[in-house]
Automatic annotation (TrEMBL):
Domain of life of the source: Eukaryota
Species of origin: Papilio machaon (Old World swallowtail butterfly)
GO BP annotations, alphabetical order: iron ion transport
Keyword Metal-binding: yes
Coiled coil found in the keyword field: no
Record's protein name: Laccase-2
Protein family membership: Belongs to the multicopper oxidase family.
GO CC, one annotated term: plasma membrane
PROSITE patterns (alphabetical): MULTICOPPER_OXIDASE1, MULTICOPPER_OXIDASE2
Keywords: Copper, Metal-binding, Oxidoreductase
InterPro entries: Cu-oxidase_2nd, Cu-oxidase_C, Cu-oxidase_fam, Cu_oxidase_CS, Cu_oxidase_Cu_BS, Cupredoxin
A GO term for molecular function: oxidoreductase activity
Signal sequence region: none
Cited PANTHER family: FI03373P-RELATED, MULTI-COPPER OXIDASE
C-alpha cells in the first residue's frame, strides 16, 4: 500500500504560492497505489466515480501488507480496516515483536509491515485512510478509502461513503500523533520491541550526545524578510509572515559542491559550538555539520520546542539505521534546558535492551525522541525533517562520520559538479580566424569548483557582466546569420 498526498498542481508551484502567502501547503486528498477520488465523497456536487484500490484475500488465510508513506507534506495517515485488527511485525525493514492493534499512524517516509487475518465473513470491507495535522478537520479533511475484497464476495464497494469523521475506528492505536510513553491508550514507537537483538548502539553511555532542538522562528530571514523595508514584524498581516524552521537556530546552507567529493576542511562548517549566541534571535545559516569518529555510538535527543505551531515532524537519517530508545510529550512546549533537567532527574527513560530499529521517526510536539546509532558507515550523511517544504528551507544538518581517510576514495574521472553560479561560464567552440568573424557559442555550463570558498560580490558581478556581453554577441551573430 503506497500512500501519497494528492495535489492538483506541481509541488514547486504549491511551494512558491505558500511562500508568497497566495496559497496553502495542505493536500486536499490522498492516493492509495495511485488510485483515489479527488473530492470529498458527500459534497453536493457528485464527484466522478473512480474505483477504489482493491486488495483481494481468501477467507482463512493471513496476509502480509507493507504500507509505505510516500508523502511529502505534513499529513500523517491513520490506517484501519473495518472489522479487522492489524498485527504490526516490522518497520522501515526491521523486524519487531508482533503488536496487534486497531489502527496505525504513519508519517512521511515511514514504512510498516502488518499481518491481516482474513477471518471475517466473505464480504467487502473499507480500508480507511484518514489525514491528520494539516489534513485534519481544521483544514482539508483529506482522506481516502480502499477495499478489502474477500474472494466470493460481490464485486461492489462496501455500503456508505464514510466522512472524515467516520474514518476513525476506536481501539488501540500504534504510533499515535503527538503521543509518547506517557500514554496508556496508545503504543509509541519507543515502546515497540526489536527482534534484531543487542548491539553496541545500546551500550550504557554513548560516545557522543547531541541535543537537536527545532521550531518555527520569527526571524528576519534575509531570504524572506529584509528589515527595515520588509522585516518580519513590519508585515501587517500575521498570516503573511514567514517563519523560519531551523535546527539549533541554524538554517542548513548546502555547499556549492557535494561534500563527499569536495571533502572540505572543518573550517567550512558550523554547529552549535561555533555559532554566536545572537543566532537565537537573529538569522544564521551555514553548512551545519556534526563530526563523529568512525564506529562511535551517537545519541541524538531531538527536541520539538512546540512554541509556534501544534505541528509534527518526522526525521530521517541517511546512511544508517538507529534505535528509538525514548519518546515522550512533556507539554505544549518545552526547551532543551527542561529536557536536560528531566534527564538529570532520572525521568528520561531509555530502552537499552531491545529498542526498535528504524531510519525515520516522529517527534511529539512539545516533547522529545531519543535515537542511537553506531557510526559505522564513513561519509557525509544528511539528517533532516521529511516534510519537503521544511527541509527545502533549511531544516537539516549533516553528520560527518569518520575522517576523510576512512571514506571511499573518489574514483578517477568521476563526474563532478560545482556551484551553479557561473564563473568562466562560456566556452567557445570556434575562435575567430579574422577580424570580421564572430565567436560561435554552441553551449555553456558552470565551471567545476572543488573548493568551498564563497564567491565575492564583485566576482559575481564580473561573471554576470561577462554573461550579458556574451549573450549580446550571440544575438548579434544570430542577426547577421539571418
Amino acid at each position: 500500500m503506497i500512500v501519497t498526498d494528492w495535489i492538483h498542481e506541481l509541488s514547486v508551484s504549491m511551494f512558491v504560492d505558500h511562500h508568497h502567502s497566495i496559497g496553502d501547503n495542505k493536500p486536499p486528498t490522498l492516493l492509495i497505489n495511485g488510485v483515489g477520488r479527488f473530492r470529498v465523497f458527500n459534497e453536493t456536487t457528485e464527484p466522478k466515480y473512480m474505483k477504489a484500490a482493491t486488495f483481494n484475500v481468501d477467507k482463512g488465510y493471513k496476509y502480509r501488507f507493507r504500507v509505505i508513506n510516500a508523502e511529502f507534506l505534513n499529513c500523517p495517515i491513520e490506517l484501519s480496516v473495518d472489522d479487522h485488527n492489524i498485527t504490526v511485525i516490522a518497520s522501515d525493514g526491521y523486524e519487531l515483536e508482533p503488536i496487534t492493534a486497531t489502527s496505525l499512524v504513519t508519517y512521511a517516509g515511514e514504512r510498516y509491515d502488518f499481518v491481516l487475518d482474513a477471518n471475517q465473513d466473505v464480504n467487502n470491507y473499507w480500508i480507511r485512510f484518514r489525514g491528520l495535522m494539516d489534513c485534519d478537520e481544521r483544514f482539508t479533511k483529506a482522506k481516502q478509502v480502499a477495499v478489502l475484497h474477500y474472494e466470493g464476495a460481490p464485486d461492489v464497494e462496501p455500503e456508505g461513503d464514510p466522512t472524515w469523521e467516520e474514518l476513525h475506528n476506536e481501539g488501540l492505536q500504534l504510533n499515535a500523533l503527538n503521543k509518547g510513553e506517557e500514554e496508556n491508550e496508545t503504543i509509541s514507537v519507543a515502546e515497540m520491541r526489536s527482534l534484531q537483538g543487542y548491539d553496541d548502539s545500546l551500550k550504557e553511555i554513548a560516545d557522543y550526545q547531541f541535543y537537536v532542538a527545532y521550531d518555527f522562528y520569527a526571524k528576519n530571514n534575509s531570504h524572506f524578510h529584509r528589515s527595515p523595508y520588509y522585516g518580519y514584524y513590519q508585515v501587517p498581516h500575521k498570516d503573511n509572515r514567514l517563519y523560519t524552521p531551523q535546527l539549533n537556530h541554524i538554517s542548513m546552507k548546502m555547499p556549492a559542491s557535494p561534500l563527499l567529493l569536495d571533502r572540505p576542511s572543518p573550517d567550512n562548517f558550523c554547529n552549535m559550538s561555533s555559532i554566536s549566541e545572537d543566532c537565537k534571535e537573529g538569522y544564521c545559516e551555514c553548512s551545519h555539520v556534526l563530526s563523529v569518529k568512525k564506529n562511535a555510538v551517537v545519541e541524538i535527543i531531538i527536541v520539538d520546542e512546540g512554541v509556534t505551531f501544534d505541528a509534527n515532524h518526522p526525521f530521517h537519517l541517511h546512511g544508517h539505521n538507529f534505535r528509538v530508545v525514548g519518546m515522550r510529550r512533556l507539554a505544549n512546549d518545552t526547551t532543551i534546558e527542561e529536557i536536560k533537567a528531566f534527564d538529570e532527574a532520572g525521568l528520561l527513560k531509555r530502552n537499552l535492551k531491545n529498542a526498535p530499529l528504524k531510519d525515520t521517526v516522529t517527534v511529539p510536539d512539545g516533547g522529545y525522541t531519543v535515537i542511537r546509532f553506531k557510526a559505522d558507515n564513513p561519509g557525509y550523511w544528511l539528517f533532516h525533517c521529511h516534510i519537503e517544504f521544511h527541509v527545502e528551507i533549511g531544516m537539516a544538518l549533516v553528520f560527518k562520520v569518520g575522517e576523510h581517510k576512512d571514506m571511499v576514495p573518489v574514483p578517477p574521472g568521476f563526474p563532478q559538479c560545482g556551484n551553479y553560479i557561473p564563473d568562466h561560464s562560456m566556452e567557445a567552440t570556434e575562435k575567430p580566424k579574422t577580424d570580421s568573424q564572430y565567436i560561435s557559442i554552441n553551449h555553456w555550463w558552470p565551471v567545476v569548483l572543488m573548493n568551498n570558498n564563497s564567491t565575492s560580490s564583485s566576482s559575481c558581478l564580473d561573471s554576470m557582466s561577462a554573461l550579458v556581453v556574451l549573450s549580446f554577441v550571440w544575438l548579434l551573430k544570430l542577426v547577421i546569420d539571418t
